[in-house]
Amino acid sequence: MAPSTNAKSLLSLIQTSSSLLSLQTLHAATLHRHPSNLSFTAALASRYSLLGFPQFSHYLLSTLPFTPLPPFTSTFSFNLLLRAYTDSNLHDQALSLYSHLLGSSPGTYPQLEPDRFTFPPVTKSCGYLCDVEAGVRIHKDAERLGLVGDLAISNALIFMYGKCGDVDAARKVFDGMSEKNVVSWTAMIGCLGRNGKREEGFRLFKRMVEQGIRPNRATILNVIPCAVNGEEADELYSFVIRNGLQFDLAVQNSLVGMFVRCKKVGFARQMFDRMPVKDLVSWSSMIEGYGQNDMYLEALQLFRDMSMLGVKPDSVTVLGVIRACANSMLSCLTHARFIHGFVIRNFLDKNLVSETALLDLYVKRGSLTYAS
After folding, report:
1. What pLDDT, on the 0 to 100 scale, is given for residue 228?
2. Crossing angle for the helix pair 280-292 and 249-261, nearest 10 degrees?
């Protein structure tokens, strides 16, 4: 049974909430008006996760009364819970729940049947799990119900096949779509970029623009890895500026990585220096970029600058500077000991990857004593 008009309004407010405070206010309202309601619990869990608070989402989902499954009264409530699992990165649970509905596991619900809202989240979960076999089965289920032509389902299938590395299957879905939106193009561009077909991905982006489809932030983040030379990097950067996306932190970080990859390290550093806000990804990208371009002294100096500003690196950042030093003929034992001391002071010495990289660094500097 679908929710009443008032309940629908509250659900809509939950699903469009844009801040933790507003969502918590709505959460309190649901506890008062709709205690122990599966649909509201699932909707709240999804929104908490999408706003960046998965710990709240996981807690809510852990409170559901499984006997062995929650008491679904409609496909609507089932879909809300399925989406909550996917949004909360609980992908195994999403697949398990879907299997229950289809009758391949105990505790099935014969009165419920998947609809067009069932398939997008569970298909995405298959992608995140890189479970192409489950993805193909779900694709066939959607075909059996005559739902493959649905735009959201087709987009999810492109995403799933792309994450699973089956570019041909993704392209077949994409080419067979009678209607495409920005999500369709973005998913296909991302699929090509992730699977080593960068030039094809960049060409598809240009075709998208030529056809009048306006790329969004997600499109830019997916096409940036497709740039393979300075000319393409400059073209993308100009596009970002023209469309006002240059102030987005994730886009800025990706652009820094792009220019480094395209051997325009000086321009990457200019971008880095102009960033009003830098996160750990920003610092790590620039340090790793210096290392990839044999600029070990610059990598080490930036690592020191980062430490002096109180930005605490993680194992990824440390690994970047260790590799930069290990691969340079100019680095010395003093630098190796400086990095090693930093690793110990910041309790990163228990990381197996960092330990292995330090060992490699000492061996290359000819210090078997420190290596041992």
Report:
1. 92
2. 0
On whether residue 118 sits in a domain, the answer given is no
Q: Do 259 and 295 belong together in one domain?
A: no
The pLDDT of residue 330 = 46
Site of tokens 């729940």: 97
Q: Which of 270, 305, 331 is the last residue of a domain?
A: 270
Compute, in degrees rounded to 10, the torsion defined by CA atoms 299, 217, 155, 119. Answer: 90
Segment 38-42 long-range contacts (CB within 8 Å, at least 24 positions apart): 38/64, 38/70, 38/71, 38/72, 38/77, 38/80, 38/81, 39/3, 39/7, 39/11, 39/76, 39/77, 39/80, 40/7, 40/10, 40/11, 40/14, 41/84, 42/77, 42/80, 42/81, 42/83, 42/84
Predicted local distance difference test score (pLDDT) of residue 346: 58
Q: How far is CA 346 from the centre of its chain?
A: 27
Domain that holds residue 190: 180-270
Q: Are residues 219 and 255 in the same domain?
A: yes
Same domain, 251 and 327: no
Last residue of a domain, one of 247, 270, 293: 270
Angstrom CA distances, 43 to 38, 60, 132, 261, stand at 9, 10, 27, 41
Q: Do the domain assignments include residue 251? A: yes
In a domain, 139, yes or no: no
Per-residue tokens: 171: 């392209």
Q: Are residues 318 and 363 in the same domain?
A: yes
Cα separation, 184 vs 165, whole angstroms? 17
Tell me the mean pLDDT per 10 residues along the chain, length 372. 66 90 90 80 88 85 65 78 90 90 56 88 97 97 93 98 98 97 98 97 97 96 96 96 93 96 95 95 92 86 88 79 64 59 58 59 56 44
Q: Select from 149, 37, 43, 137 the least CA-distant residue to 95.
A: 137
Displacement of CA 11 from its chain's centroid (Å): 26
* Cis, peptide link before residue 68, omega less than 30° from 0: yes
Q: Is residue 163 one of the residues assigned to a domain?
A: no
All residues at 6 or more sequence positions from 113 whose CB lies less than 8 Å from its CB, including other chains: 75, 145
Between the CA of residue 34 and those of 18, 31, 209, what are the distances in Å?
Answer: 21, 6, 46
The tally of CA atoms less than 13 A away on the side-chain side of residue 34 is: 20
